[in-house]
Specification:
Layout lengths: L1 E5 L20 E2 L2 E2 H11 L4 E6 L3 H10 L6 E6 L6 H8 L11 E5 L2 E3 L3 H11 L3 E6 L5 E5 L5 E6 L5 E2 L11 E11 L3 H4 L9 H8 L5 E4 L6 E3 L3 H9 L5
Parallel strand pairs: 1-4, 1-6, 4-5, 8-13
Antiparallel strand pairs: 2-3, 6-12, 7-14, 8-12, 9-10, 9-12, 10-11
Helix pairs in contact: 3-6
Length: 245
């Protein structure tokens, strides 16, 4: 099984901690968030990981070398010249995944959760959509909207009232809102749908543009717990009261 860790972000929410350290190497409960995630992926059975880098990316390369890549096959998708956002970053790493029919898991480096990653991956294999998105009912301002068959149909910002959907005669009341958890499983056929997408772009904007023509599914396991540790208050909370994840 293969996975990709999105670790190229600037970490602007963690200023000034990220002035001299990439976000992925900020310690959380005693270890860099990147180390926590690599070990979780390894324990779940993933044997090859691609990590994208940008801000102070050489520190990530040195960190991996100092730890012998944690005895797992790790490749670097280098975005140090130009940060490509989530969608552009995934497309930039296509050479690591496109030659195989094997789906791959994508995981934001700053997400900590109790999700069984192997079960999530296997669910995608069984249902076989273009992509499966981990979602939950947590409170946020921005939501993805899914129909009764758990198929992605729209996006909504509750604070501004903005709605994005390519479905005709879209009726907001007919859909269920979920918050995206920053973890998804992708079939490599997705790169064929990305051919006209270039440069820097959001994976969510891409999903919204293609979901009317293909199947982007929700995955919402019971009792899901998820923490975004890309914020200072979350790091302080998790350091003082480590969750049982």
């Amino acid at each position: 099984m293969k996975a990709m860790i999105l670790a190229a972000g600037l970490g602007t929410r963690l200023k000034s901690m990220t002035d001299n350290t990439p976000k992925a190497l900020i310690p959380v409960n005693g270890k860099p968030m990147l180390e926590h995630l690599i070990l979780k992926l390894k324990a779940a059975g993933f044997r090859e990981i691609v990590i994208n880098i940008h801000h102070l990316g050489e520190q990530i390369i040195d960190f991996l070398a100092a730890n012998d890549n944690f005895d797992i096959k790790i490749k670097i998708s280098d975005e140090r010249d130009y940060l490509l956002d989530t969608g552009g970053g995934i497309k930039h790493a296509a050479k690591f995944f496109a030659e195989s029919n094997e789906p791959f898991l994508v995981h934001n480096v700053d997400i900590v959760s109790n999700v069984d990653l192997k079960a999530f991956y296997n669910h995608h294999l069984e249902t076989n959509p273009l992509a499966t998105l981990l979602v939950s009912k947590r409170n946020t301002s921005r939501y993805l909207l899914f129909d009764k068959d758990n198929k992605l149909c729209a996006w909504r910002n509750r604070d501004t009232g903005e709605v994005k959907s390519f479905f005709p005669n879209f009726d907001l009341q007919k859909y269920t809102e979920y918050a995206f958890g920053g973890i998804h499983v992708i079939s490599p056929q997705l790169f064929e749908w990305m051919e006209e997408w270039t440069g820097k772009f959001s994976i969510i904007n891409f999903y919204l543009s293609v979901c009317v023509k293909t199947n982007i599914q929700a995955y919402s396991p019971k009792n899901i717990r998820l923490i975004d540790v890309g914020k200072p208050e979350a790091i302080r909370l998790i350091n003082n009261h480590p969750p049982a994840l």
